[in-house]
Amino acid sequence: MTALQSETRDDAHHVVVVGGGFGGLQAIKSLKGSGTRITLIDRRNHHLFQPLLYQAATTILAPSEIAWPLRHVLRSRPDVTTLMAKVMDVDTETRQVWLGDGTFVTYDTLILATGARHSYFGNDHWEEHAPGLKTLEDATKIRRRILAAFEAAEKCDDEVERRALLTFAVIGAGPTGVELAGIIAELAKRVLPRDFRRIDTREARVMLIEAGPRVLAGFPEELSSYAAKTLERLGVELRLGAKVTECHSDAVDIGLDSVPCHTIIWAAGVQASRAGKWIRADADKAGRVLVAPDLSVPERPEIFVIGDTAAVDRADGRPVPGVAPAAKQMGAHVAKVIKARLAGGTLPAPFAYKDMGNMATLGRRAAIADFGGYKMKGVLAWWIWGVAHIYFLIGTRSRAVVAWSWMWSYVTGQNSARIITQPEDGKPQ
Amino acid sequence: MTALQSETRDDAHHVVVVGGGFGGLQAIKSLKGSGTRITLIDRRNHHLFQPLLYQAATTILAPSEIAWPLRHVLRSRPDVTTLMAKVMDVDTETRQVWLGDGTFVTYDTLILATGARHSYFGNDHWEEHAPGLKTLEDATKIRRRILAAFEAAEKCDDEVERRALLTFAVIGAGPTGVELAGIIAELAKRVLPRDFRRIDTREARVMLIEAGPRVLAGFPEELSSYAAKTLERLGVELRLGAKVTECHSDAVDIGLDSVPCHTIIWAAGVQASRAGKWIRADADKAGRVLVAPDLSVPERPEIFVIGDTAAVDRADGRPVPGVAPAAKQMGAHVAKVIKARLAGGTLPAPFAYKDMGNMATLGRRAAIADFGGYKMKGVLAWWIWGVAHIYFLIGTRSRAVVAWSWMWSYVTGQNSARIITQPEDGKPQ
After folding, report:
1. Catalyses which reaction (chains A, B) (predicted)?
2. Which domains occur in chain A, in start order?
């Protein structure tokens, strides 16, 4: 129960940032030169490039290609100390962030940027059978389940069981669900066939289940219907207007039907992290903290909440989406507010989200993009998507390795990250 | 309890290979065109390039850079079926290999190539505190422990505890122990210092503990003493003639001393796999099956044992070492014997190991090499080691990626695979 050593070393204004995702890192970058002392706390040692996580889950990229040690990213910032620790609670009176090992860190300003997890809408027991995709561990688990299903099918001599092993269900047809389904279909239809002897992997059934009437509801209808057609051409079976009623280890129930199926992936909903509870703040149904126009917490101006943990609306009343550019913009905004407060200058105008457009990939050769008025689809959109994502990766090395992995996959049709590790029972099968 | 479907499909001579390491894969390669039908059984889905495993454990390479799905390696061999399954037992009377799911595979010829695990010389309870390095999971675990120790030290405000967190013990100064200690020292002294704020990682203590009188006892004394000097220059503390008497979670006992230490790695001894027990064969103390001069099991000519699971002597009476070239030579040899038997031709001469020389790296810029009469050391030996290992990797993609990772590490001094995943308690810290 002691304060960490450096607590008393320095009397600069102390900004504590919890969460090293897009929002937290951007806040730290934008605070450069502000004269503050910064402590970044994350329970993981790495920043994760979530927009490409679905590729790690589907054997195209390796985990280390889309994650970087936070302290390495911040190595040239002597004003930033990085702590790998789990936050247990926040004492807003004494301004202390309490860590899992019983120590605490005292802040002058606190930025909560702890993101979101998947939500099962009250059916938390589905998680075991239908994992979601938010962390590298999730990606490794999903990759393991997909690959292990093909392995088990190759060994299986029961026709019905084999068909269940070769059935894959993705629940939720937002960008993540669409991207996962597209790659799994390609894996089955194009990447794996030559590797197996007893099964024809092309017979695999990949279902994309969506309660709403269309895929990618966030996109204009025209792109949505192009996406649906492209997915069907890749071999994805679309189940629109279909409501999942239960997830089992060997089946998914859709309405009153039960479809035998060994691999289910959840891409249907998210819920904000627990940060709102630490500070006992008002939150919406999804747990997102209701923030003031400057992204601070009402009556706690020294606490900011940003990214997927904050409930922020656009000028037209629609919510700001839970995407990387939004989190980054919020991070930059709170840095501006903090700097203005310390300098005693004019405070910036309220936060306003600037929509940079929306993209989603369909397999490895097509994508759709919606830049406000300007829409794109097909191969060219895929290339633009690829170049944009390589641009946003961190560091020359990752850019080169990811570009190389994609070129390799594109040209040879082979995915390289197809290793099964860490079986779930802890023992090799 | 049913025979797998394809059992009855084909009446070609059926060779079952258990284990897709260097020996098993080489046997399959050399059996190409023999007219046999081959089934490869491995409990993992990948071939692992073990000579570079220490680099995956020490953040230089990512797991997928040194492992390849077995069925992908064998995709152009329609005569080979790959099964990911755990072997439970072998019925040598009915010639059945029994798998973990209750099915069996019947063989005409059986090749057991199941390798070795580490041995704690009767102190199996040490494994929890001092993991060995044989699998990708081992490598991930060791990498996690090393990185987590630095993370914990950065958070720790107790001087004594921090020193224990920054003490690393490698037990056993054979090639693996020497290679691990060298890279850990470099990690602490050169790669990590700029990333931490509260600790000076250069103060880390890396001990290499060896019961014998010198490091790398398999090499000539001259190279051995060069290696010792190079390790000391890298900052490794050599403890020769030192016997480990106990491993704890927070200390290692050497003789009557107890050294506070949170990270212990075991590189001191190996033991053959259980394959000898499946076939109830005579084995030596380390569990290695005593084979006939053609590598078959006495009185069971249809069963061969190769690689680290076989006890084979050289012409001069010294044992054949447990290295990749030896396993490969044995694999090629049994393929020759099987082909000669099937063709009814002259059987090949007894197996004779051809020593291709011996290499070990010392950190990232030096190595030693012993090619019989010709000895090398230093930077040039490192480059020869590097080129040789890239040559033996599988496929253009891996060669390019590993070469790139090494160049990157060499030029920038940074290691790229520094992500902590899957904490041991299953939950992120």
Report:
1. a quinone + NADH + H(+) = a quinol + NAD(+)
2. 5-118+270-343 (3.50.50.60), 124-268 (3.50.50.100)
